[in-house]
Every structure is written in C-alpha cells, then in structure tokens.
Amino acid sequence: MKASIIRDGKKICSKCKKEKPVDQFHVDKRAKTGRSSACLDCKGLRPLTTEQQRRANKRHDDWVKQDRLLNPEKYVKYGQDFRARHPKWTLLNAARKRAAAKGLTFSITETDIPIPEVCPILGMPIVVNTNGMKDNSISLDRKDVRLGYESGNVQVISVKANAMKNSATPDELRRFARWVINTYGI
C-alpha cells in the first residue's frame, strides 16, 4: 500500500512506515487523501482540538476565496476538467440537488448511470461538454416523471432529446411522430 492511499480507515505513515488509523494523521485539505503524509507521532504532535481544526479550515477557506478572486480562470478550468473526468458524479450531484428542491426520492448511485455513446432516442453521438450545454451533451432523464431518481427510472440521453421529452406531453409526442411519418414518409 502506498503512503498516500487510505484503505479500510488506515494509512501508512511516510516517515515511520507503520500502518495507522487515519485519525492519527492531521487533516490536510491540500493532500490527495485529505490527511497529512506523516502521522502525529512522527511529527511530535497531538491531535488538533475541534476549535483548532475549525480555525485551520477557516484560514484555508479564506485563502481559497482570495485565490478565486485573483485567479478565476484557474477555477473555471479546474471545474471543466473535473466535469470531464467525472461525468457520472456531475450528473448524480445535479440530480441530487433537483430531487431535494422538488421533494423527489433519490436512491441512485453512479452504477445506475451507464453513459451510452449515442443518444438512445435520437441516435446522435452524445458527449461530455464542459463549456455549457449543447444539443449533444449528456443529460440524466427520469423515464417516468411521476417517480424520483430511482434505480431503473433513469437513463442518459442527449440534452436535445430531454428538452423535447420534457416540453411535450405524451399525446403531443405521438401526434408529432405521426406528423413526421406522414410528412416525410419514414
């Protein structure tokens, strides 16, 4: 196990190389694991009190706020890169917020969100866009709008298909489909 990995609530100290519980490492928001690399014993420290940790977190948060004001492009780029690397998490997080705002049930996980290469409704290739929503962007859709975000009731479709589906009733969609067939002979 590498020193920077936490498994089963334990981590290996970078100095003494002993595996210890994660609460034996200071919280460090800059570290990949969120904990310092060396244990408290090796640093000759004792755990921070709740108040000390709150102050340290506030100093870090203040620094981040100031840095965001000075370097907004850096944070925009970071957000775009994160959304490109984690499209399922991005869809899941947005759905969680919508469910809370609308009072819907929410019980899905990332495994409930397979992302197809093409939109199952329109057949167009769908992509993960990080610069705003486009017609071919991925979108999480509830198959039955009366239900919440539940396993089996969600699918990834294009933004265009989702907009068409959401803005029309099933009867209007049937009439539209009949019109397309009659007009274009498809």
Summarize the structure.
With 186 residues, the protein is mainly α. The protein contains 6 helices and 4 strands; from the N terminus they run ββααααββαα.
Mean pLDDT: 86
CATH class of the largest domain: Alpha Beta
Radius of gyration: 24 Å
Q: How many helices does DSSP assign?
A: 6
Low-pLDDT runs of 5+ residues are none
What string gives the helices and strands in order? EEHHHHEEHH
- Report the biggest beta sheet as strand number plus sense, adding barrel if it closes: 2 strands, antiparallel
| Number of E strands | 4
Major sheet: arrangement of strands: 1-2
User: In total, how many domains does the architecture comprise?
Assistant: 2
Termini separation (Å)?
59 Å
Shape, per Cα inertia axes: elongated
Instruction: Label the CATH architecture of the largest domain.
Output: 2-Layer Sandwich
Helix content range = 40-55%
Q: Bin the strand percentage.
A: 5-15%
CATH fold title of the largest domain: Herpes Virus-1
State the secondary-structure class.
Answer: mainly alpha
